[in-house]
Inverse folding.
């Protein structure tokens, strides 16, 4: 199986479920996973020279792109043709650790004012280190749905987003199914 499809298969296991991270400070963080979030997490928005993954083209919603990845119509052979593929290769490679990242016992209460430059809107960062790389899943609050959503997936060779931040211990993670008419939502 190619790398992109492997990442989609890993992520697909989370679609249709809410995860509640129970923190030692008394905060519960509810996170909802949907197919549409995979597009940005995988970095596909960088591949602007590949028509099949350009959301600005007709019939190219994030969900339809996810479905085409799942059925093999969008694959490594296609995205590797992009001159921007090198920007997402590490992201895809470390996305294979997504299941392990979701078992992180530490979460960062991210304060963007403590980093020099960032466009991250996430409030919380789940992270783990692999091979001297910080692998981070950013969780952003969605006011419209009153839930956190996965906003970004970062592979960084420094603790840039983690240092000088407040962190909490995750003492429990609860997984609950939410109602959906489709396995890909």
């Amino acid at each position: 199986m190619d790398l992109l499809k492997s990442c989609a298969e890993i992520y697909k296991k989370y679609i249709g479920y809410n995860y509640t991270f129970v923190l030692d400070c008394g905060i519960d963080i509810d996170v909802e996973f949907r197919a549409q979030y995979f597009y940005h997490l995988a970095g596909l928005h960088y591949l602007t020279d590949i028509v099949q993954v350009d959301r600005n083209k007709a019939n190219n919603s994030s969900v339809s792109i996810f479905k085409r990845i799942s059925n093999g119509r969008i694959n490594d052979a296609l995205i590797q043709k992009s001159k921007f593929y090198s920007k997402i290769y590490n992201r895809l490679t470390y996305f294979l650790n997504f299941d392990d990242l979701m078992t992180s016992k530490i979460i960062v209460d991210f304060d963007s004012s403590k980093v020099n430059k960032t466009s991250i809107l996430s409030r919380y960062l789940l992270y783990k280190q692999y091979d001297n790389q910080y692998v981070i899943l950013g969780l952003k609050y969605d006011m419209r749905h009153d839930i956190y959503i996965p906003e970004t997936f970062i592979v960084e060779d420094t603790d840039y987003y983690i240092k000088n931040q407040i962190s909490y211990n995750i003492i429990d993670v609860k997984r609950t199914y939410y109602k959906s008419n489709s396995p890909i939502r």
Summary: The first strand starts at residue 17 and ends at 23.
